[in-house]
Amino acid sequence: MNLANPKLAVFAISFLPQFVAPGSPRWALVALAALWVVVDTVWYLLIVALLTRILGWLRRSVVRRRLERVSGAVLIGLGVRLAVESA
């Protein structure tokens, strides 16, 4: 996900060296970057697994109807608040 983002490379170049002692071998910085990639990969896989389980629950018609009612009530409430405040 972040490999195509050039801002991440700039951030990594400025962020990671502070955790490596001066004069240490280059592999230490590469290992730190690899650890960062592993942590990000595990994090995104956990998010995907969680969302896959939630998606099955959200597709049920009862849940979908309740969510539509709640979101509709919230939007109506926001509209009423906006109308009262602007008057």
Rg result:
23 Å
Low-confidence segments: none
- Report the average pLDDT across residues: 88
- SSE order: HHH
What fraction, in percent, of the residue positions are helical?
over 70%
Oligomer: single chain
- Provide the structure class: mainly alpha
Count of folded domains: 1
Describe the structure.
About 80% of the residues lie in helices and about 0% in strands. The chain is elongated, with a radius of gyration of 23 Å. The N and C termini lie far apart (about 45 Å). The mean pLDDT is about 90. It is built from 3 helices and no strands. The protein is mainly α and about 90 residues long. It has one domain.
The gist of it:
This protein is an all-alpha fold. The chain has helices spanning 6-15, 26-58, 61-86.
Pick out its properties.
mainly alpha, 87 residues
How are the secondary structure elements laid out?
Elements: H1 6-15, H2 26-58, H3 61-86
